[in-house]
Design brief:
The chain contains twelve helices and eleven strands. With 311 residues, it is α/β, with parallel strands linked by helices. Strand 9, helix 11 and strand 10 form a beta-alpha-beta unit. Helix 4 runs antiparallel to helix 5 and helix 7 crosses helix 9. The longest helix has 14 residues.
Length: 311
């Protein structure tokens, strides 16, 4: 059985030394059953874009190959034995070759610490004088140590009495992840759809989504009465299950094959969405997500996701 795959090797921010193209090729050629067909090492310059955090330069090696010993998961297992992150300075990601074809694709992303750098609930809590306390709960929830819905309601309760103007103040300070603008532009220009689903709040997300011209955006709704936050959320809480179902719903709405779906996130609340997508990407992620993701990016450049789709 022969399977067409693409190798997307992305340099890590924590790598003390990066392998040369020749060293990468040699390492891959040593994998029994993997036949490289073509490859190219590219240097992507640092990112400095308005409304984004500055991002570092990174390297990406792109190769097409044939895997002769099973399917994509088997290839991932074989390349995982190389421990590229430690010995080469690159995360070696194996992607189905068909994900880089011309078919319409759906990219669904988490928001806090993925599309943007902040955790909005932590910023709002800081305005209420409960920042450190809430940030600790957020961190535990993202590691998967707490039930997300229960922990969200607990954190939102600390916001009771805040003036709604604080939402706009926090939103004005939000910065996108480096490369976020480029990533969305490239996907949309190619005729694909880009959606976000967030455990954060629609009052903050809406202007962010509008600025990027996103296809769809979904988040929790902060309950506000007479200009004050009540400490509650209205309607359905955006849990991991809702994120997964959102991906399925949007793929159906836009008539996109499941084999052309990509999901990106960083925490435990993204696990189900990552598992549902054809390619689940862990972006500078917590261990709970790294353990289930198909691919990973460990440099602060969201635009690196484009390489998985051949864009």
């Amino acid at each position: 059985m022969s399977t067409s795959v693409n190798i997307v090797a992305i340099s890590r921010a924590d790598a003390p030394l990066l392998a040369t193209e020749e060293q990468l090729v040699a390492a891959l050629q040593a994998v029994e059953g993997l036949e490289l067909e073509s490859g190219l090492l590219m240097e992507v310059p640092a990112s400095r874009v308005e409304r984004e955090v500055e991002g570092p330069a990174y390297s990406v090696y792109l190769a097409s190959a044939q895997w002769e010993r099973g399917g994509v998961e088997d290839a991932r297992g074989a390349l995982g034995l190389l421990d590229g992150a430690r010995s080469l300075g690159f995360d070696l990601n194996v992607v189905p070759a068909e994900l880089a074809n011309d078919e319409k694709k759906l990219l669904v992303m988490d928001v806090d610490s993925t599309l943007i750098r902040q955790e909005v609930i932590d910023e709002l809590a800081a305005a209420a004088g409960r920042g450190a306390e809430v940030a600790e709960v957020t961190e535990r929830a993202m590691r998967g140590e707490l039930d997300f819905e229960a922990s969200l309601r607990e954190r939102v309760a600390t916001l009771a009495g805040l003036d709604e103007s604080v939402i706009d103040e926090v939103a004005s300070k939000v910065l996108y992840s480096p490369g976020a603008t480029k990533l969305v532009e490239v996907f949309l220009a190619a005729g694909h759809e880009v959606c976000v689903v967030s455990g954060g709040f629609v009052q903050v997300l809406s202007p962010l989504a509008g600025y990027l011209n996103l296809s769809k955006a979904r988040a929790n709704v902060l309950d506000i009465i007479e200009g004050k936050l009540t400490g509650k959320v209205s309607g359905e809480v955006i849990t991991g299950e809702v994120k997964k179902e959102s991906l399925k719903e949007w793929a159906k709405e836009f008539d996109i094959k499941s084999s052309q779906t990509i999901a990106v996130g960083d925490g435990a609340n993204d696990v189900l969405m990552i598992l549902e997508a054809e390619l689940g990407v862990a972006f500078n992620a917590k261990t709970a997500l790294l353990e289930v993701a198909d691919a990973q990016i460990n440099t602060l450049r969201l635009d690196a996701v484009r390489h998985f789709a051949g864009l």
